[in-house]
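Database export, one record per block. Field names are fixed; values are copied verbatim from the stored entry.
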Amino acid sequence: MTLGLSVVVPMFNEEEVVPLFVQRLRPELDALSHDGVSVTYEVVCVDDGSRDGTAELLFAAREEWPQLRLVRLLRNAGHQAALTAGLDSARAEYAVTIDADLQDPPEAIGQMYSMAVSDGLDVVYGVRSDRSSDTMVKRWTAHSYYRVMRRLSGPQLPDNAGDFRLVSRRVIHALSALPEHGRVYRLVIPWFGFPSGQVTYVRDRRAAGRTKYPLSRMVSLGLDSVTAFSAVPLRFATWAGMLGTGFALFAMGWALWGSFVGGTVPGWTSTVATLGLLAAVQLLCLGLLGEYVARIFVASQGRPTYLVGYDSLHHPHPALRHEVTGSPTYAPRYSGGAGPSRNDRSGSAA
């Protein structure tokens, strides 16, 4: 039987929110229908190497909810890698990616699915119309992120659209064919240019637990996004070097003019200022180059994006507890997609 919808949920240390998430998601999916016909579905929960009781709670929930599928990664691979694992495992014609913290409402999934099927869309973005539940810092960083990335990647990037979206099987095939390492889905999927729509919603507060994306993770996500999708920083390094050189020449001319008119006192202020500026520009340029070299290095290693240690689709009744908590019980699955990312926590971002 062909499934209509796969719901992909990356999780990392979410034991506090798992019962609330299951309680809220299941009624929505059980009632999901289109043109009076019930939609068959699966829920692919990707446990991204959690160190708490997330996997056990999911496995217990599966006893009463057969559509729930547990995919357990051997190690924490990061939010985008967990999404890759979930999309690679999804079997339906459409797939929705949503985080478990309930900041993105499961109630919008039905609207996304109906819009995609009725209008023949390949992508439906969940767009946050109200972010008042976020902190001021979170709102400011998110606004800055989307503004900068739209300038770098183009106007096709929807504003305030995170990783809550629906994609068709055609998009999933296109993603799996990408050789790109360190992909950021909120940038790659709009870049494809598939027919798309939007569903707006009000972003809620996290239902339970702690955020996996503090300010430091947000900054890392922004840096990954820029270096993965644009060569503009390399040009910025060139322009910064030219600007620093021009400033240094101006300072030298000013110092020579001052010495000719006798308006200067011998000292090291101008020297230190000029050298400090040049050193800062050089270090900045080296840092930007290093980011790109690091991405080349990761790509050259050819390491898998993720390793699956357990999949309840293939082993519905593990005999031993360690089969649920992470030790491999069969050959791990390799993917040639995104490489390891600095964002090594699953959770809502931007």
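Remark 1: The beta strands are 5-11, 33-34, 37-38, 41-47, 68-73, 94-97, 123-130, 161-168, 196-202, 308-311.
Remark 2: The first strand starts at residue 5 and ends at 11.
End of record.
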